[in-house]
Amino acid sequence: MSRVRSVVLFIRRSCDLGTPLRTVAWIARTGASDVLVIIHPEMAAGELEVRRRLKHAGLSQLKTRVVFGRHSMKESLIRLGEAREGERLVVVGSKERDVPAREILDPETIELIECCSDPVLLFPFRLSEFVPWSLIVTPMSGEFRRNRALARAMDLANQLQVPMDIVHVIDPMQKHQYSAKAVGRTGDQPHHEIQPMISEFISAACPFCSESEKKVIRNFRLIHGSAILELPKILSDTSVGLIAIEWKGLFMRGHAETLKELIRKLRVPVLLIRETANQETSLRAGHRFRAN
Amino acid sequence: MQGTPIWPNELQRPFRALVFDWDGVAVSGRDKAIPHLQDSLSRLLDCGVLIVVVTGTHFGHLQHQLLSGLGRRGLENLFCCTNRGSEVYAFRDGGRADRVYLKQASLDDERHLDRTAIRLQKLIFKEFHLDSEIIFDRLNRRKVDLIPTPQWVSPPKGSINELLMAVEQRLGAHEGIAGLPWLVSRARDIAQECGLEDPRVTTDIKHIEIGLTDKSDSSRWILLNQIIPRKIEPREVCIIGDEFGMTGGVPGSDLLLCIPELVSSTIVSVGVEPAGTPSMVHHVPGGPEAFMDFLDLQLSYFDWGLSRDPAWLLVQTDFDPAREREMEALFTVGNGLLGLRGALEITIPASESDLYIAGVYDSKFQSRPYSELDFLTPKRNTSRYSELVSFPFPFRIRIKLNGDEIQLREKDSSTHSRKLDLGTGILEVKQKFQIDSYQVEIISRRLASLDDSSRIIHEFELISSGGRVTIDVECGIDFDEFQNRHPHLLVLSPALKQDFRELTFFKTMASGKLVAFGSRMQINGIEVQGPSWSSILEDQERVQVRRVLVVHTHDSDMEYLERTTRERLKAHPLKDFHRWIGNHRRAWSSFWRRSDLRFSNNQGLTESQRFNLYHLRIAAPVVSGNSIPARTLSGRGYEGHIFWDAEIFVLPFFALQFPHFARNLLEYRYRTLPGARRRATQLGFRGALFAWESTVDGEDETPESILIKSHSVEVPIFTGTQQVHVTADVAYGVWNYWYCTGDSEFMRNYGAEILFETARFWCSRVSNDGDQFHIDEVVGPDEYHHGVRDNAYTNWMARFNLNKALWARDWLAASDPEYFRDLCLRLGIRTEDFNLWDVISKSLYIPQPGPNGVIEQFEGFFQLKNVVLEKAERLKSPVSRLLDWQEVNASKICKQADVLMLPFLFPESFSDDVIRANYRYYEPITDHGSSLSLPVHAWTAARIGAFQDALSYYNQSVELDLFNLMQNTSLGVHAACMGGSWMALIFGLMGVRLTEGGPVLEQSVRRTLPREWGSISLRLLFREKEYEIEVAAA
Question: A217 contacts in B (CB within 8 Å)?
Fold first, then answer.
C-alpha cells in the first residue's frame, strides 16, 4: 500500500479555495507531511488572503510551504521531479463557471493533468461541501486488468479511513458488453460465479493491495444502464465524497467525452488517475506462445 | 504394463557413463517414436553423463529414431557405436554427426567374409538340408539367416524364446546334431580356414554373423578415447544390455561389451534372459520400460531433471500482477491428496497461494466484506463441510538485505518466471531483485510427491551479487494476514520446534479437522533448526536450502496426529532428497508411458492435451473416498464442491487409463450414500438422492437462494432440489467403470448397492399418468430451465439407472446369491421392489425424436419464446441471463448441451440423422455457459461429420484453461472440460468404440481427421488389457 506523503496544491484566482484547502489539510493530518502550495502569479495581490485561508483551514500548523509560481502549473510540476508511485497528490480546481462539457477544463489545467503521472484531485465548480468524505466511489470498466484508480483510491481510503464503493455499469446498448473480458458476464449459477468473479476482478485490478486493505471496500455495485446517466445518480447520494476515475491521459477534443461530461455534472471532487500500460505475461505452452 | 522395477542397491547411485545396447534395451522396435527416451537422454547429456549407444545396425537407423528428437545441449557427451563395433559417431557443431572411427576392411577381408558365409550356407544345407539366406550388405560382416521364413522376418526381442524354439526345431530335427552352438563353432573354424585371422562370430538366434569386429571393439574404443581421458573410473560405468546369458547354448552378444578393462563396472540386463545371466550381471527384466525407469533414476541424481523439450513445458516469462492468480492455477503441482498453487516464493499481496488437502472442508465464511452476494441469508445451508479449506503457502521466503526486506513492489525492476515440467510435475520458479547495488536471484523447485502423497519437497538457491552483504532469510509457512486469507483455520501450536523439526498444527473452525504440517530443512547440506537464519554472503556466493514438508490429518486425535507426524518426519532424512525426486519422477514416467497422447503433425494439440492430462493426474484421488472437485485442487472455484462432472466427464479417462482412480471416485460416492439417503428422505423420497453439490458427507451444499445486494434481488437456486439427474449420473459411472474394468469385487461390494439405492429413488421420484410414468419438477443439464417435466436427459438416465439395477440384481444373484440375499435384507429390498423397477423402466416416458428428428428437451420446450443468440454471447453470457432468470426460463436458450448429452453417452442408441437434427436445432441456441458444453459439441459435430465445428469445439475445450477462454481460470482449472475433451477426441474425432472384445475403430473416421494432425496414437486399458491405438488421416 502507498500513502500520500506529499501534496502539491495549485491555487488560482478562478478557483474556490475553501474545500480544497480543508481537504488538503485533512490529508496532511493523516500523514502527508509535505504540503506545497503553489500560488499562481496572477494571485500575487491576494497573498494575504491565501495565507489567511491556509491558517483558517489549519494548514499553517502543518509543514506547509507556500510559493508563488513563476511558471505554468505543468512546468512547476516538472521542476518538482518524479515522486514514488502513489506518494504524491496534485490538487487543482476547475473553472468557476458553467460551461459546456468540452470546455470544462481550461488549457492550463488540461496541460497539467495530461502531463501528470501522479493522481490529480480536481475540484469542480459548484462543489458540494463534504469534508471529511463519507464515501469514495470508483467506477470500473469490467475488464480484468490492473486499474490504477482502484489502487490509488483504495490507498487514499485506507489513509483517510473512508469506505469505498466500486461501481461497474453495464450498458446493455453497447455491443462491447459482450466483450469476453467483463465481470458482468457469467455463465454458471450466480452463487458460483458472481461473488468469486468480483473477488478475482478486484484482485486483478489492485494486485498490490492486501486483504486487510481491501476491507475498505464496502460494496461492489453492478448497475445496468448508461454510465453518463447512472453514475451521477449514484453520486447524487449525499454520502459520496470523492469519485476516483482511471483515464487514458488525453483530454483533447474527441477524447474523454464521458469523463468531461461527468466532471461537468458532478458535485464532488474527482481523483483522476492516468492509466498506464500493464506489463504483459507471456505464457508458452510447449512451442506456442500466448501473450495478452 | 509391468509395475515399477525394483533396482538393486548397487544401481541406486549415479553413474558417469552409461553404455547400452539399442534394440531391445532402449527401444522395442525401430519404427517407434521415443519422445520420453529422447527427453531423458537429452537431460542426462546436459548433465555431463557420457552416453554410449551400441548397436549392430547402421547409423541411419539411429539418426532417424534417436537423434531427430534430441536437444542440442550436451551432445559432446553422446557417442554412437554402430555396425557392430566397426564405427563410432560423435556430435559437434550444433548436432552434426562426425564419424570418428571406422574399421576399414581390405579387399581380402571382404573376400574372406564372402567365402565364409557361402561355405557356412553350404554346410547348413549339407548338414541340415535347410535353406538359409546370406545378407551381404553389412559393413565388415556377413549374416546368415537361419530361418528366412515370413513368420520370422523381424522377430521382436520379447519373442526370443519362441524364436529359439523355432530355430532349434529347424536345426535339431536332423539326426540329433547340437544345432546352434555347433554352427557357431563351425563358422569360426570356416572363417579361419578362409583366411580371417581374428573372426568375430556371434548369433542373435535368427542369424549367425561373421565379422571383423564386434561389440567388444565398441567398448574398447570408448574406454580408450572417452572413459580414460575423462577420468571416469570403471566403477562409474554402467553397461546395460538384454542378452548376457546363454541363449541356445551360445553366450549372449552383450557379454562382449564387458571387456576385461571394465570388469569393475556395473552390468545390468533388462532382457528376458531365458537361461539366466552370469553372476556379475544384475537382471532387472522389463525391456525398454525398465531401461526408461533406470534413466529416470539416474536423472534424479544429477538435478531435478526438468525437461529440455519445450513440448513438455509450460513456461511463463514476464510478469503481469493482474494475471498472477491465473498463473498460480495453471502452475499448480499436486498429487491427488495435496494441491499447491504455483505461487511465487516472494509474491504480491493479491496472491492466492493456497495449499488444498483433498477432503478437508469447513463451514462457508463470508470471505469478503464487499461480497456482492449475501450468502448468509437464512436459507443458506450451514453445513460444517460447505467449502474446501485453503491452507497457507508453506514455502514463503522472506529475505532482508542489510536489514531491508525484499518486496515485490508496483514499479520495480524485478523479474519473475515459472517453468512447469508436465512430464515430471516439477515447478521451477526464478525471481530476480535489484536492491540498490545488489542483485538477488532465487531459483526454486518444488514437487508434490507422486509416490508419497503426504510429501512436498522444495529446494531453492539464493545467489547474491554486487558485494558482501548481510542477509536474513526466513522460509516457511506464510502467516501474513492469516485470518483474512484462511478464515477456516485456527493455529494450534505455531512453529513448535524440536529435534530439528518444525511442526505446525491447524484445526478447522467448524468441522474440527486436525492438520499437521511437519518440515525439515537443510542449508548447504547441513540440517538446521527453525525457519530462519542470518549470514554474510560474499559476492556471487550461493546458498542452497532444501525442505521437506509432510502433511497429515486426523479427525480428532491430536496426540495421535502429533505422534505420527513426528514419526513420519523422522523417516524423512534429507539425505534421501534425491531418492524422493527419483521416485517421484519414475511415478510420473509410469503415468505418461500409458497416458501420453500424440498428434504426429500437431505439436500444439499434443502439448495442450498433455497439459490437461497433467492436471487430471494431479487431481486424481489417491485415497479411497475422495473425489475430484469441479476446479480440482487448483483453486477456490465452486468452493471445492463435487458435481456430476466427476462421474460423467472425468471418470472415463481414469477408467481406461488408471482404473484404481476411477474406483476411488466411485467409492467416494459410496461413502456419501448415508447422506444421499438422508437427502432423499428430507425431500420426501426413498432410496438415495446424491447431492448436486457434494463435499464430505453427502449433504447437499447448494443454497436455496441468494441475495444480490445491488439489485435487491433474491435469486432462487433450483439445482439443489431439482437437478436430480446427478443420481443417475453416479449410477452411470458405476456401470461405465464396471464395463471398462470388469471389476467384480467393486460391483459386489459397492456398485450393486449404489445401483439399488438409486433405483429406489427413481421409483419414488416418478409420477404416473395412467400407464405412463413421468418425472416432474426437474432441472436438466441446461440449468436455464427449472421446474420442467420429462427432461429427456433425466428420464433417459433414470431408465438407464433402473435397467442397470435390474441387471445388478441378476448378476449378484447368480454370482453370489448369499451376499445378494444379505444385501436385500440389509437394504429392505423385496421382490416387489424389483418388479416395480421393471414396470417403471418400461413405462417411463422417454421423449422421442419428432418428425424432424429433434427430441424435445422437456415438455413444452418447443413452445418457449424464440431468442436470437448473438455469437458474442457464447462462452460467457451477460450477467442478466442469471438475474432475469424468469425470462430466461421462458425462452428457447440453453446453457449447455442437454439433449446432446444422450448421444454423447449412448452413441449406439441414435442414428446419425437424429444426432444431426438435434445438433442443428440445439447448437445455435446454446450459449455454453458451462465448460462441459464444449466437448459434448465437439463429439457430436465429429459424429455427424460437421468437421469444422468439431475442430473448433475441440480446440476450445482442449485449450479452455491454457487460453483462459472463460476468464475464470484463476479460480482453478476445469477438470470436467479436460476429461470431456479427452472423450471428444477418443470417442468422437478418433472414432473409438468400446466393445466387449475391446476398443475398435470406426474406419469412417479416418476420412474426416484433418491431414494436418497426422496420426494420433495413444494407449487404452480395457479390462486389464492394454491396447495401442493409432489413427491416421486417410
Answer: 368-370
Four-residue CA torsion sign, A244, A248, A252, A254: negative
Q: Which positions in chain B touch A205 (Cβ < 8 Å)?
A: 322
- Do B888 and B809 fall into the same domain? no
CATH superfamily of A6-123: HUPs (3.40.50.620)
Contacts of A51 (CB under 8 A, 6+ apart): A60, A66
Q: Are strands B514-523 and B526-528 parallel, antiparallel or unpaired?
A: antiparallel
Both B912 and B979 in a single domain?
yes
pLDDT at residue A42 above 80? no
- Decide: B740 and B659 in contact? Cβ < 8 Å: yes
Q: Across the interface, do A184 and B879 touch by the CB < 8 Å criterion?
A: yes
Banded pLDDT at A99 (limits 50, 70, 90): low
Q: Which of B592, B618, B646 is the last residue of a domain?
A: B592
Taking CB atoms and an 8 Å limit, are B321 and A192 in contact across chains?
no
Q: Which CATH number fits domain A135-274: 3.40.980.10, 3.90.1150.10, 2.40.50.140, 3.40.50.620?
A: 3.40.50.620
The Cα–Cα gap between B621 and B471 comes to 42
Task: Supply the ipTM of this predicted assembly.
Answer: 0.89
Please, which residues have CB within 8 angstroms of residue A243's CB and are 6 or more apart in sequence?
A136, A137, A138, A139, A231, A235, A262, A266, A268, A269, A270, A271
How do residues B878-894 score in pLDDT, each as one tens digit? 666 666 778 888 999 99
Q: Which residue of B has its CA nearest to A276?
A: B411
Q: Grid coordinates representing A104? A: 470544462
Q: Indicate the domain borders of chain A.
A: 6-123, 135-274
Nearest to A196 among B411, B637, B711 (CB): B637
CA separation for the pair B1034, B1019 (Å, rounded): 21
Inter-chain contact B872–A178, Cβ cutoff 8 Å?
A: yes
Query: What distance in Å separates residue B323's CA from the closest CA in chain A?
Result: 6
| Rounded CA separation B268/B238 (Å) | 7
CA nearest to A168 within chain B: B710
CA of A289 vs chain B CAs: smallest distance (Å): 9
Chain B residue numbers touching A202 (CB-CB < 8 A): 370
Determine the angle formed by the axes of helices B725-741 and B752-765, rounding to 10 degrees: 150
Decide: A138 and A110 in contact? Cβ < 8 Å.
no
- If you average pLDDT over every residue of chain A, what do you get? 80
Span B536-589, pLDDT tens digits? 999 988 899 999 999 999 999 999 999 999 999 999 899 888 888 988 988 998
Residues recorded for chain B: 1034
